[in-house]
Amino acid sequence: MTNHPKINSLRLAALFSSISLFIMTLAAAFSYGFVNNQIFVNTDPLLTLSNLKEASGLFKAGLLGWLLIIVTDVLVSWGFYVFFLKTNRKISTLGAIFRLSYVALLITAVINLVQISRIASSANMVSDSIDPGHIMILFQQFDYFWSLGLILFGFHLICIGFLASKDHQVPNFIGLLLLIAGLSYALIHILYRFFPDFHAFTTTLETLLSLPMIVGELGFGIWLWIKGGK
Length: 230
Prior knowledge:
Layout: H1 4-39, H2 45-54, H3 56-83, H4 89-122, H5 132-166, H6 172-194, H7 199-226
Helix pairs in contact: 1-3, 1-7, 2-5, 3-4, 4-5, 5-6, 6-7
């Protein structure tokens, strides 16, 4: 009977983490995969401005999605920390620090999108009062800070992959997938941010590694939902 409170707390952490991961995945697919790709065209500031004019409501919905991502990221950080405390307190704490640091950079990135929304809302979109180049600079700053954050996110997944591989309850392949995902995130975004001359190679590498990057954490989320903490 003395183990029940501990088991319940682990199960609660597992469920919170898995539910938050699923919500985050859907929000990211909408806000980044759909909204940003619908509106921002890196090679055409004028078209981007036109898209903002025609889809201002969609852009604001995307901002709500980013807010949801930030909240669920914090919940996942807490859930993973609690779940792996029993495995290794120091690595679990380090993993939480990496993820919360990523969240801080994500907030910094999203502030640029909020500024874009304010500019678009306060000015007459038909007039020439908005500088399309300024809009693109703000979007590039969003991309820059988010990419920096994803390096830390990769380090977080490496910590979680290590912890999962050491936890006898978690299947070995889950730990391996998390480690591969973490290394992929860190490597790709280090290349993007610090080695711009290799952009074409990095883009190809990201395409090749996109599946393990997605499957790693999402697969762990599915396992947490079904068996985590039981």
